[in-house]
Specification:
single chain; nine-stranded mixed sheet; alpha/beta
Length: 369
């Protein structure tokens, strides 16, 4: 991202009334923030939900002064801006309608593409059981080399970051404050270690932004959006983690919760999430691996010589030849293609599977090996 592109993007983001959704809509329509700010009122009004009030605010010149000040802050603090149109913007987060237009990183941006990413969150006041479960979970997942995301807060957050570092995993903290400050300050050392091991700090907040309570709820959507799944270790019924779960549910991401005793206040949130089907029960790393298909290994297709299978029955040969031509298909479509009843095709596929010629796939698909 050039300095000019960053400058105009900062200016657009500072227009009152333009949030992430409207800002993205305008940039997608005109091509860049500079083109948005250069557009005429007649052109702007063509964009959905742009009215006279927003037109007036787009014309205010103080947005450029604010952008210039922030640009100097970014340069002085050696921050790396991450633009939502850049190829290294986190892929999963970019699928969220309210993802930031700009984020800032304490380190040069990494490539999030095709990476396994999970968020681990929980109470600031965990039990020894909760901390131990967090450490064991990450140790068991290290073979899959996931990126561990959390919020650098006391309790489960910092335990997750430390466990990730202990096992050589990349870990990022999403902050609810600007990146010129580490909060809490006592976690500065671990933040520096995260940067040294390929991770770091992320935030959408400007250096000039005030630190407010609402910021931490706002950042929770990024914690959820970055990840394939959000894991709640321990949480009170009204704990801050519950807002992250709401975002994850809204984004249609997997959520896991560790169950606890019914009389334990710090397990009440997890138990309620499981009871109301807002989260899956989590007892071990295997639950995550299975649900997210991390253990799926692409099998090398065997080269099959048709003349080797002279013992196929008539129905088996029909189904086999159909799959040889189509590679894979749904059970219903296979039955239509070979003009046989579904029950007969089902038993035929089972016979072919036992002979090592066919394998079933999720969703009633079948594939020729």
């Amino acid at each position: 991202m050039t300095e000019e592109e960053l400058y105009y993007t900062l200016a657009l983001c500072k227009v009152e009334g333009i949030g992430c959704i409207m800002g993205r809509r305008l940039i997608d329509y005109f091509g860049s923030a500079k083109e948005v700010l250069s557009a005429s009122p007649k052109e702007l009004i063509q964009v959905s939900n742009v009215g006279t009030i927003l037109l007036e605010k787009l014309s205010k010149k103080n947005i450029y002064e604010k952008a210039e000040v922030e640009l100097k802050h970014i340069q002085a603090n050696h921050l790396s801006p991450i633009y939502y149109k850049a190829p290294h913007f986190p892929f999963l987060l970019n699928q969220c309608v309210d993802a930031p237009i700009l984020m800032f990183s304490s380190v040069p941006s990494i490539d999030w593409t095709n990476r396994k990413v999970i968020s681990i969150i929980g109470t600031r006041y965990p039990s020894s059981r909760g901390v131990a479960f967090c450490k064991t979970l990450i140790e068991d997942l290290k073979v899959y080399n996931p990126i561990i995301v959390s919020g650098l807060a006391y309790g489960i957050d910092v335990s997750a970051h430390q466990a990730a570092l202990d096992h050589g995993l990349t870990t990022f903290a999403v902050l609810g404050n600007p990146l010129n400050t580490v909060y809490p300050e006592s976690h500065l050392r671990i933040a520096q270690t995260m940067e040294q091991q390929g991770g770091g700090l992320l935030s959408e907040f400007w250096i000039s932004d005030r630190i407010e309570r609402e910021n931490f709820i706002q950042r929770n959507r990024i914690v959820a959006g970055l990840s394939q799944a959000t894991i709640v270790i321990e949480s009170a019924i009204k704990g801050g983690s519950m807002s992250t779960v709401t975002f994850a549910n809204d984004y249609n991401r997997d959520v896991f919760a560790v169950p606890g005793r019914t009389d334990d206040a710090m397990s009440a949130g997890c138990n309620e999430l499981i009871r109301t089907n807002r989260a899956q029960l989590l007892t071990s790393a295997a639950n995550i691996v299975e649900t997210l298909n991390w253990d799926r290994v692409e099998q090398k297709k065997k080269v099959i010589q048709p003349e080797l299978f002279v013992d196929l029955s008539g129905d088996e040969e029909k189904v086999y030849n159909y799959l040889k031509e189509n590679s894979r298909d749904l059970l219903d479509l296979i039955a239509l293609g070979v003009e046989l009843p579904i029950y007969k095709v089902s038993s035929t596929l089972l016979n072919l599977e036992l002979k090592g010629l066919v394998r079933p796939l999720p969703g009633k698909y079948f594939e020729l090996l």
